[in-house]
């Protein structure tokens, strides 16, 4: 299975993005939030976290700009009646931290406001996932917007993805973009790929 892709964003459409990885174009289905992030990074090298969904008649790649969104997607797939396309629609309705907050607080009305989520589906999501999202994500620190931007900046400067991820996860949650990139340049010098 494909876990992630590192390549250049070639094209962003309404529900997919095309990622060029060494001359091979991968079509990635993604949430509206991820596609908006990709649109801003068009032509740049990035890492796309991937879930490979295999069916009898198709092999479909679902892509995510961050691990937090991928983990929430995988959690949503455990809910009875929620498939990959519905999970992407749900993720299009808000950032992962917002959706997790709705689930943890048992806010069925707030979840019902998300795309393709009715009252019964919202209640099923809460019943299945409430209290389980934190344990499912243990060891993976949620990235702030600054963390995501720092990661992207350091990757674009040519540093290895694994080294960048280790460094960014060690940063405090309230770090600014400028401080994070400056510390990254100091810490990672000599780790260019």
Task: Furnish the topology, listing elements before pairings.
Layout: E1 4-12, E2 16-21, E3 24-29, H1 32-40, E4 45-54, E5 59-64, H2 67-76, H3 84-92, H4 96-104, H5 108-112, H6 119-129, H7 133-136, H8 145-156, H9 161-169, H10 177-188
Parallel strand pairs: 3-5
Antiparallel strand pairs: 1-2, 1-4, 2-3, 4-5
| Major sheet attributes | 5 strands, mixed, barrel
What is the N-to-C order of secondary-structure elements (H for helix, E for strand)? EEEHEEHHHHHHHHH
Which regions have little confidence, pLDDT < 50, spanning 5+ residues?
Answer: 135-142
Q: CATH superfamily name of the largest domain?
A: 5' to 3' exonuclease, C-terminal subdomain
User: Which class of secondary structure composition applies to the elements?
Assistant: alpha+beta
Percentage of β-strand residues: 15-25%
Count every helix, treating DSSP H or I runs of 4 or more residues as helices.
Answer: 10
Annotation, overall tally of beta strands: 5
CATH class of the largest domain: Mainly Alpha
Distance between the termini: 24 Å
> What is the CATH architecture assignment of the largest domain?
Orthogonal Bundle
CATH topology of the largest domain: DNA polymerase, domain 1
Give the CA-based shape: globular
Strand order of the largest sheet: 1-2-3-5-4
């Amino acid at each position: 299975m494909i876990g992630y892709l590192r390549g250049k964003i070639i094209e962003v459409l309404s529900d997919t993005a095309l990622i060029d990885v060494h001359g091979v174009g991968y079509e990635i289905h993604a949430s509206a939030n991820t596609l908006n992030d990709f649109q801003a990074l068009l032509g740049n090298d990035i890492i796309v976290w991937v879930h490979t969904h295999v069916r009898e008649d198709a092999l479909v790649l679902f892509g995510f700009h961050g691990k937090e969104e991928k983990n929430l997607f995988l959690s949503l797939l455990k809910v009875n009646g929620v498939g990959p396309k519905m999970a992407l629609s749900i993720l299009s309705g808000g950032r992962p931290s917002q959706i997790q907050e709705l689930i943890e607080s048992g806010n069925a009305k707030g979840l019902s406001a998300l795309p393709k989520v009715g009252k019964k589906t919202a209640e099923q999501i809460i019943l299945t996932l409430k209290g389980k999202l934190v344990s499912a994500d243990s060891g993976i620190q949620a990235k702030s917007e600054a963390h995501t931007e720092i990661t992207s900046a350091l990757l674009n400067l040519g540093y290895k993805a694994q080294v960048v991820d280790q460094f960014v996860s060690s940063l405090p949650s309230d770090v600014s973009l400028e401080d994070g990139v400056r510390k990254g340049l100091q810490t990672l010098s000599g780790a260019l790929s």
